[in-house]
Design brief:
- The chain has helices at 46-53, 76-83, 101-112, 117-130, 146-157, 176-193, 204-210, 229-233, 238-245, 261-264; strands at residues 5-14, 23-31, 35-40, 61-66, 69-70, 86-89, 164-168, 196-201, 213-217, 223-227.
- It is an alpha/beta fold.
- The strands form two sheets. It has a six-stranded mixed β-sheet with strand order 6-7-8-3-9-10, sandwiched between helices.
- It is globular and about 75 Å long.
Length: 270
């Protein structure tokens, strides 16, 4: 694996059961220190791909390589060590509602380090300051807005200074201002920390504005296109154009495959 590649998906096939394959023979490389957006419709395997990178599931065939190491989900020592290098922003935050903002961000530090409490305090306040919420440290999760909750979850995701940050639908359910704030934070944190960032999303404008590299997936992880945001926006490929421009019909059809309507309604053919 090239030194410029941090994560490699090497001919990976995966399904949650034998009846349905989610990813089929997918190969991708995610560049080190860059923001890569993974775009695609619902059900194309974006989140599944992230779970394979995190070692939540094992590939049925092929390899997932994390900074030169092939992930082995049976090796718990390896998984624990690699996950220390990974930060995850879950789609709905997954914050602990019975803890304060401060305690949520402090949780991974207390769980995975032996740092003294005074150092944890300083680090938590630094992480919260980075997302603009140092003043909210004492609030409970029920007292913050959806946009603030997403930023708190981001502060927790970067608590251990991860080398890889995975964002699962970071813009889902946010108003336009909160979306802009979140997008700016993703870009800024990547540039300041030098981390490798993977952004799984449906939101084309936000991803195109902050990404270095974009991958467009279709069903079963088929790679429709990949390249810089400008290259995808200027693409003449019909399927790529339909997705990045939000056109309602095209190669991806509006109608799910069905027999002629006359068959369903019992109308005799003329």
């Amino acid at each position: 694996m090239s030194n410029d590649t941090f994560i490699e998906i090497d001919h990976v096939t995966f399904g949650y059961d034998a009846s349905r394959t989610i990813l089929r023979d997918v190969s991708l490389k995610f560049p080190r220190g860059k923001v890569t957006a993974i775009l695609g419709g619902s059900g194309c395997g974006k989140t599944t791909l992230m779970r394979l990178i995190g070692g939540v599931h094992a590939a049925d065939s092929g390899r997932v390589v994390f900074d030169g190491e092939v992930i082995d989900t049976r090796d718990h020592t390896q998984l624990y060590r690699l996950r220390r290098r990974l930060g995850m922003l879950f789609q709905f935050g997954a914050l602990f509602t019975d803890l304060t903002v401060f305690e949520n961000v402090a949780f991974p530090m207390r769980e995975h380090t032996q740092l003294p409490e005074d150092m944890i305090r300083d680090l938590v306040l630094m992480k919260l300051n980075a997302v603009g919420l140092r003043g909210a440290a004492g609030l409970r999760i029920s007292e913050v807005s959806g946009g603030m909750a997403r930023r708190i979850a981001l502060a927790r995701a970067i608590a251990l200074d991860p080398e890889l940050i995975i964002y699962d639908e970071p813009f889902a359910g946010l108003d336009l201002i909160s979306m802009g704030v979140t997008a700016k934070l993703i870009r800024t944190l990547n540039d300041v920390t030098g981390a490798t960032s993977l952004v799984v999303s449906h939101d084309v404008p936000e991803c195109m504005a902050i990404s270095d590299h974009v991958v467009l997936l279709a069903a079963q992880g088929r790679i429709v296109a990949q390249g810089t945001p400008a290259e995808l926006m200027d693409s003449t490929d019909p399927e790529t154009r339909q997705f990045v421009r939000g056109e309602p019909d095209g190669p991806v059809k509006f109608h799910y495959p069905a027999p002629p309507i006359a068959v369903d309604f019992g109308v005799a053919a003329a």
